[in-house]
């Protein structure tokens, strides 16, 4: 395919093909060119990691390659995340010298077409950087809907070194989802104060749901959850699959008074979700959106940002998503 830079009239022929084992170094170079060495998910760049995932059919990876054989763009979907049944779009970059030519958009379109036959896929989602709207708008054209925000998760000077960032600046992500093989999310708990916004998000996704204002008590003693801590970016992310009777003590041990950013995905289909939501609110966490359409449940995203201020001006969302950022800011206040 021929792509043209409208500003310079430079034309480049690019073809798209699956990732191969021998692409490893060139693939890594492409990612590092875009992020300036600041890409936070370093495991994807370790030797053999991507090849192993592809062999196990846990990832589908596409490369944009020039006539000279140079990899200038990458895009991938991962299928084995902790959100079972929901594929994660990631590694979506185009080398700086080839941006603005429509390469990334076309590659994304081809990648999404290539995975349509996966019957186990209920949904797709992407955590998209929110310091510009180009990637968000590209996904919106592919039918993705803004469902939430991961506020201030990354240190700007570490994520994108070389940028003219103010001291202490932090970058956020937009959570965007698309329905695949699901039309009904079933019954789950949702706090009364968020029922309207939850219904609007599921309506935009084209998915039915039935929201219950009263939750059930815990049915297990131990909370089932994962805990990801990134010391470099001073953040922690919890994904709570099942709320246990020990949740209060876990939250206390976390010590939210530190300067770290805390993000929590709470499974609203868990029997103790209502109690956990109330405890998180008392601890200073606030609603930042939803992560819908997973085999394991429907998740509410909550965040704690310490003494920092969440400023709307520092989070850029495409126009159709602005309403959700306003809603989130009111919850923060």
UniProtKB/TrEMBL annotation:
InterPro entries reported for this sequence: Acyl_CoA_acyltransferase, GNAT_dom
Residues covered by the N-acetyltransferase domain: 14-161
Listed transmembrane segments: none
GO molecular function, one term: acyltransferase activity, transferring groups other than amino-acyl groups
SUPFAM superfamilies: Acyl-CoA N-acyltransferases (Nat)
PROSITE patterns hit by this protein: GNAT
Gene3D superfamilies documented for this protein: 3.40.630.30
Highest taxon listed in the record's lineage: Bacteria
Protein name: N-acetyltransferase domain-containing protein
Lineage: Bacteria, Bacillati, Bacillota, Clostridia, Eubacteriales
